[in-house]
Amino acid sequence: MVYDLIIIGGGPGGYLAAERAGQAGLSVLLFEKHALGGVCLNEGCIPSKALLNSAKIADYAKLGKRYGVITENVSLDHAAVIDRKNKVVRGLVMGVSMKMKKNGVTVVNDKAVIEGRDAEGFRVRAGDSIYTGQRLLIASGSVPAMPPIPGLVEGYESGYVMTNREILDMTQIPEKLVIIGGGVIGLEMASYFNSAGSKVTVVEMLDHIAGPTDREISSILYKNYKRKGVDFRLSAKVTRLSDNEVFYETTEGVQSVQADKVLVSIGRSPNTRGLGLEAIGVEADRGRIITDETMKTNISEVYAVGDVNGVSMLAHTAYREAEVCINTILGKKDRMRYHAIPSVIYTNPEVGSVGETEESAKEKGLDVKIVKLPLSYSGRYVAENSGGDGVIKILVDRKYQTIQGVHMIGSYASEIIYGAAMMIETEMRVEDIRQIVFPHPTVGEVIREAMWEI
């Protein structure tokens, strides 16, 4: 059989593309060597949120007295948390599998390697079988970046060093946890294990945490986690690892911190090694498959979506890229836009961001007005957060009065930020937003309040 579309990778981009293509009547073959849902569902987005939710409940219980709730001896049962996480993941993986069956998608649980192209189409090998498809979509995702730090590989092989995969299945809480990297993954894991009782130290090469997040917002998050007991070593380059010790270098020289376990979370790299891209001549830059705004590669009828193209390594970006790809295949005009993709750090407090930051606006020479409001402008925020220091920060184009960026830290940021993304995507003006009726009392209505400060 010659399939209309072969997809390599069953993560968010791959399985949603398979679903949309199946709904459109295309014959689809999907390869996934591990489990449907990919890293996001099995080793990232979903399992980490299950852990973080448990930590948030524990944090609130410990502070119950502030809200008139008497609690004693609050603690996390880590084994029970992991058990619940596994049940959540199993249920959602089963849901993805059912969607594939419903839409007529054939799933092969094996590693796929591109063999070449002939008159019938693209040849892909899995095990001892060869499959053929008229079109090829590569959605093979990404893998944790492993820098050449002496002792890192040896530590990983012994179980002393972990990536996001291993730490989410760890059965015991380490007394001392060192996290290499203060980006999203590192901060979320610092959040959980700090709440669970670990002494957490984050070693970050930059002079700030949270990477490209608006610097003012990341500074507030930093202060929150310093107060909670997380130890940050900034402007620090890890030089080597040994048993129970991580060495790093700063302007003050070489220093070290003890660790029972180490999490390496310095980013992710496109997963293209051993895929067989060279067999058909797909162009890549340091492993990143180059695509245009319709998700096409340099080879006709070959597409790439998700982390593997390295543009925006977020599950929701992969979803949209998958839809653009399938629409392109079906002859529907569509294109991918990246300027209004929201991002979230699911710590407690949460951070939500979309669009230009104050730093990126300056770099691009944009003429923007910046409006900042404390979330205490929201009655609901005050009612639910004793002593909270949440903030929303909005960047507005001075000439056209359109929203260029929104950044906030505080409760419900993850659920509010999509509205800001819509405002940027649709080029809403300040006056347009002033006319929208926001529900009261909600934290999100601070956006409307901010429009009257411009």
Give me some keywords for this one:
single chain; 454 residues; alpha/beta; FAD/NAD(P)-binding domain; Enolase-like, domain 1; 3 domains; 5-stranded parallel beta sheet; 14 helices; 33% helix
Which structural category do the helix and sheet elements fall into? alpha/beta
Strand elements, count: 26
**Low-pLDDT windows of residues:** none
**Proportion of β residues?**
15-25%
Q: Give the biggest beta sheet.
A: 5 strands, parallel
Overall mean confidence score, pLDDT? 97
CATH topology of the largest domain, anyone?
Answer: FAD/NAD(P)-binding domain
CATH superfamily of the largest domain: FAD/NAD(P)-binding domain
> In total, how many domains does the architecture comprise?
3
Cα Rg: 23 Å
The CATH class of the largest domain, by name, is Alpha Beta
Task: Describe the fold and architecture.
This protein is of the alpha/beta class. The protein folds into three domains: about 1-145 and about 270-330, FAD/NAD(P)-binding domain (3-Layer(bba) Sandwich); about 150-265, FAD/NAD(P)-binding domain, CATH 3.50.50.60; about 345-450, Enolase-like, domain 1. The chain has 14 helices and 26 strands. It has helices at about 10-25, 40-45, 45-60, 80-100, 150-160, 165, 185-195, 215-225, 315-330, 360-365, 380-385, 415-425, 430-435, 445-450, and strands at about 1-5, 5-10, 30, 105-110, 115, 120-125, 130-135, 135-140, 140-145, 160, 175-180, 200-205, 230-235, 235-240, 245-250, 255-260, 260-265, 270, 285, 290, 300-305, 345, 350-355, 370-375, 390-395, 405-410. The strands form seven sheets. The protein has a five-stranded parallel β-sheet with strand order 4-3-2-8-21, with helices on one face. β22 and β23 form a beta hairpin. α3 (about 45-60) packs antiparallel against α4 and α3 (about 45-60) crosses α7 (about 185-195). The longest helix is centred in the first third of the chain and has 25 residues, at about 80-100. The chain is globular and about 70 Å long. The mean pLDDT is about 95.
